[in-house]
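Minutes, methods subgroup
Present: GH (chair), OT, SY

1. OT presented the first of two proteins processed in the latest run. Sequence and structure tokens recorded below as shown on screen.
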Amino acid sequence: MNVRRSAAVLAAAVATALPAVPAAVADDAPPSGATSAPPSPPAGLYGRSDPTYDGVFRQSYALLAQHTAGVRPAAGAVGWLTGQQCADGGFAAYRSDTGRDCTAKTAVDSNSTAAAVQALAALGGHRASVEGAVRWLRSAQNADGGWGYTPGLPSDANSTGIVVGALAAAGERPADVRSAKGGKSAYDALPALALPCAKGGGFGLRDAQSGKLAANADATAAGVLGGFGRGQVVSGGPAAARQGTGCKDGSALTARQAAVNGAGYLSGLLRRTPHLVASLAGAADSPDYGNTADAVVALAAAGRTGTARRAADWLAEHAGTWAQRTGPAAYAQLIFAAHATGTDPRHFGGTDLVRALNATGPAPAEPAAGPAGHSREPAGKSGAGGPGTWWVVGVCLVAGIGGGLLLSTRTRRRP
């Protein structure tokens, strides 16, 4: 799970004035004032850290990345994910006791559900689970056509983008998935979440106090994928077609043009440095590895292969330590970035990302076989990265800022 997803959780807590973040995302959070030791990682789950706030998300990313790399995940790992689903089709961040039915207090969210849909749809053989999750996503759609992190929160680019990817993965036409009240789709919501060209053209996060949008690279990466109707797995490489250039806005702005504008915004940021920088308090000017990987995928979807490859090469040189510290979701994000740029994830600098991911959980069902189409290997070896940007740290940092933080009242809403 990346920092984008954690920001969504925190945004939800701030927007609804909840007393604590854990109660907002866990269906079995301890009573106020109670303390408990972090639970041991459940069998079948990838990663050894506490899954309370990201179990479904990181598992979904891990399984989707394995599938993308030509690996058939362990049956137990897939079963762990499907076992997390509520009867109404939605997924919470984590349910420690799946023997108990979900209740109205179970914090089912759009991001966990959409990530699970993308993974299960790719793996195949889980039609009932996917259809149930899509029904839940439809029920959580806002009147403006978009999604917030949890039902009732305003739409944000992060949540709307990942849900569009889930709908596409499930075989739905996102433009045809319209709100019961208002009859609008995600393609109506996304342009309203984009900044004008005079302010860069990126997608924004909404300030918790003023309600104004401010451009945000993480929200932009998600909005770009959503605007193009793409999921997390993008087949890019040198042959990728450019989806458009030039920033255009106005009353006729479409979701696709907003995605083109957003790709230009990301490209501009990555012309200054080959990586994005962290925006959380206390981490100024530090590389943001996870959001850089997301930007690579978004730029590949837009056909901006040169900028995407430059950032992917930087990740190959520097993101190894970050991924090792962060865990399966980080390895998955790097695999998606490698795939999007036509790079072999088994030779990502000096790191075999697939082997490293596999080692964080149950052994795959069969030996890994390299996927076709990977012909490019970034130069260099993965070296020391900056300090781990694990999303829980992001939550703690952001929580100390208070109302001054720019938050999407969603969402991420990115791991």
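2. SY then presented the second protein from the same run.
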Amino acid sequence: MRFPILTGLLLMSTGLAFADPTESTEVGFPEVRTLGTLNGQALACRQFDASSEAKALIIGYAPKTRRYGTLFETATNAAFLAATKDDAPCPTAADLAARLAESAEALKAVFPEQANPEQAKPEQAKPEPSEPQPPGAEPSLSNDETGS
């Protein structure tokens, strides 16, 4: 039982126990942080098309890990709160679209393997229903979809 206590003390003394996962120098973190900031500004300014574009970019180009998702959400929240607290002027839709385009190019440069997500993942063929369905009827779920 002494090992976990000693390990905890060591982590606390080195500061690793309180390390912020969003303050990393990992590849792509500045680009993801910028995209999250743009998303927060878009949400605060009620520019929902720009926010949807930012979310599509993060899904389409950044690695699907918790660290990148947390960073995006943290940057989004911080930018939203700053914009609403300070009553900062909203960027125009054209300005926000241009900044999102720059951010997309930066993400593509950092994560080239993610740049064409449609080509990277082949479409899965949908199985044909085993029984004919009447017009307008919903297809039955397979065992995998129902969880049984």
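Chair's summary of item 2: Residues 66-85 form the longest helix (20 residues).
Next meeting: continue with the remaining queue.
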